[in-house]
Amino acid sequence: MILVPLSLDYLQSVDCLNWSYVREYPSENWHVIGWLVCLGLLAITWIVSIVTVTKHLRNYYEPKLQRHKLRVLLFPPVFSTLAWFSYLRYDYSTTIMFFATLFEAFAVYNLYTSLQAYLEPFRVEAGNIKESRDTNIMFIIKYRLNSMWGMHYRIITDILVLQYPVWSLIDSFISIFAELRGRYCDGSYSFKGAYVYLTIINFASLSVILTALFTYLDVFHREWKRGRVPAHGMFWCVKGPIMIIFYIGEMLLTILTTCNVIKGTDGTHGSIAWPADAVKNGLYVIIICVVMTIDSFMMLRFFGPKDNIANAARTGQVKKMSYSRAFVDGYLAYIPEFLYNVLCCGVDSYRLMRKRRALKKRKQNQDQDQQQLTDPNGANSPNDYLLDHRMSVQNEPSGYKMEEFGSHQQPSTVASPHYPTANNDHYYSSESSMTPPPMPSRQNLDRPTQIDVYPQPGYISSQPQPTYH
Fold this sequence. Notes:
The protein is mostly helical and about 475 residues long. Helix content is about 65%, strand content about 0%. The protein is built from 17 helices and 2 strands. It has helices at about 5-15, 20-25, 30-60, 65-75, 75-90, 95-125, 150-180, 195-220, 220-225, 230-260, 275-300, 305-315, 325-330, 335-345, 345-375, 380-390, 440-445, and strands at about 135, 140-145. Helix 3 packs parallel to helix 11 (about 275-300), helix 4 (about 65-75) packs antiparallel against helix 6 (about 95-125) and helix 7 (about 150-180) runs antiparallel to helix 8. The protein starts with a helix and ends in a 23-residue tail after the last helix.
């Protein structure tokens, strides 16, 4: 466990440290040498990062792209600085690394938003096209994506990517509270402490975001080439250090500490006594500072303003933001944007789901109506539909209203027409008065019908008849 007096003794002994022993016995004072080396690497990281940031602020032609780059560029110097302070104050290392994790989460988020900003012109060009794409998940599983430009794939990728920074912040809070309760057990894979469980969850979360980003890069590889976007280089500038720090700086060093390979110092030859956990933390910080120094040079190439300046020269753009306005747009407006996008992640997908559900239900109703009107052999044929629904003619006397076949007609003032047969009987017999006549065949329905408008014998009209003299 972490001992607070240890770091206080270390700070008090720095002033009275005999530097001659450090030069004479470097192997016994390697932690002091490592701390000084990290300080030199930290200075180099800040110089390179400030130079890159200044280039952007002086050539701020494309705010939609460059604001995300500016935010990512602060990841190496800020993260390594906080790690260096945790080297100096080992008793507060968990709390200090919480803020380092916060900047790591911001870097991951801005990497993804930067790739989305580069992809936006191609998304507008595609419009509503539903284009499928074959891809490989983690280079192993083959999968066919039905719509690479669809909102569902974009929202799913958002969730898989943003879960990592959100969980990183939650993990940092849990680490602080577990350490206050004495249940953290940093640097030891003991299932009695929270450290081992948090490491397992971190491993799963990192695997999920790597899978999502690798798939994202593979799905749009054609667009990266068309736009000359260094998407893979930008990816490795952010996720490369995170992977090295986690797999080597945390997992490997913790395994070596648990197996007693990494041991502490006893304080002989003028050195400071460090337990194994403190030695492991020192090595962890050295790895961070070395990796971040290399990463700052990589970001100078892949996150620099070179492509933005080239785009402005190609399009003839002269107007650019001032230095101060670019600083405000790049950094001061960041926190509200980050909180809004994280909290509203998935809202667009939910709205689209409701809209599609309503359209699907409407289409099903239209298909059912169309089937009723076009299916002649089914139960809902046009003939049945017309027979089942009584038709009425407006603006006509009630006596001329059409009645259903086979229904009994009550005596009225309107006489029924008489259709004579061979036996001079009624058309319907008394035994089959309720049986309607057979429906005519389809061929007879298609033939033109000739209607005799002259009255037949036996037809009695209720209208007054003219008198001929």
